């Protein structure tokens, strides 16, 4: 698809001066993919652009959440619960009469570090969701019609901080987290470049 102007922080959080070595390394490792995905996703300048985004992000999240269901779960995530967006995405798609997209095929993480790498990308997307939620609202998509998943992502800023606190407990040399984060970004880019493109063509 022809990628548009970038929306900052669509996926995964920007590090701060207080970032841990693992978080800083994940950010550096995924920087180029992050830039590509930011450019492909936004900004949402029309209802048609939102429909394309919704199809692409649904295909990505369906695949990612399916992969996580059989992933080894890290002990450092005790008392922390992953929030699936698939049910809300299905309702958003139904609101707009968009067929369910085929999930992007993603293998389950094969280690707890890889699980953390995938979650780094998925949980970091809440930062960009705040921007996308405002843009979607400009075209009539809200927490009760078409943008439920964005409202859920943007509604609890503390989740990202809580996740990062646990991420920082990973050994600094957990390279499996890097690989999983890169693979997760690649899957998101694939979804936006294929599934979203098909939706754009249907709206043309």
Can you put this structure into words, describing what you see?
The chain has 7 helices and no strands. With 204 residues, the chain is an all-alpha fold. The chain has a single domain, classed as Heme oxygenase-like (Heme Oxygenase, Chain A). The protein is globular. InterPro entries: Haem_Oase-like_multi-hlx (IPR016084). This is Biliverdin-producing heme oxygenase.
Tell me which oligomeric state these chains represent: single chain
Q: Report the β-strand fraction as a percent range.
A: under 5%
What is the class in the CATH system? Mainly Alpha
Rg over CA atoms, rounded to whole Å, is: 16 Å
Protein name: Biliverdin-producing heme oxygenase
InterPro entries: Haem_Oase-like_multi-hlx
Organism: Gluconacetobacter takamatsuzukensis
Secondary structure layout:
Elements (H helix, E strand, L loop, with lengths): L20 H21 L5 H22 L17 H10 L16 H26 L10 H7 L3 H10 L7 H29 L1
Protein name: Biliverdin-producing heme oxygenase
Organism: Gluconacetobacter takamatsuzukensis
InterPro entries: Haem_Oase-like_multi-hlx
């Amino acid at each position: 698809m022809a990628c548009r102007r970038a929306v900052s922080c669509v996926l995964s959080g920007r590090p701060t001066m207080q970032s841990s070595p693992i978080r800083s390394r994940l950010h550096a490792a995924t920087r180029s993919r992050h830039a590509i995905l930011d450019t492909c996703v936004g900004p949402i300048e029309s209802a048609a652009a939102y429909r394309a985004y919704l199809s692409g992000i649904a295909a990505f999240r369906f695949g990612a959440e399916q992969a996580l269901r059989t992933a080894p779960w890290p002990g450092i995530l005790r008392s922390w619960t992953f929030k699936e967006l698939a049910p809300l995405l299905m309702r958003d798609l139904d609101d707009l009469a968009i067929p369910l997209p085929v999930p992007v095929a993603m293998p389950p993480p094969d280690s707890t570090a890889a699980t953390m790498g995938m979650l780094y990308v998925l949980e970091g997307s809440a930062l960009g969701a705040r921007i996308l939620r405002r843009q979607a609202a400009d075209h009539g998509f809200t927490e009760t019609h078409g943008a439920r998943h964005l409202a859920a992502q943007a509604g609890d800023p503390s989740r990202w901080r809580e996740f990062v606190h646990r991420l920082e407990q990973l050994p600094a040399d957990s390279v499996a987290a890097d690989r999983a984060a890169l693979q997760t970004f690649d899957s998101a880019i694939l979804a936006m470049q294929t599934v979203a493109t098909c939706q754009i063509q249907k709206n043309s």
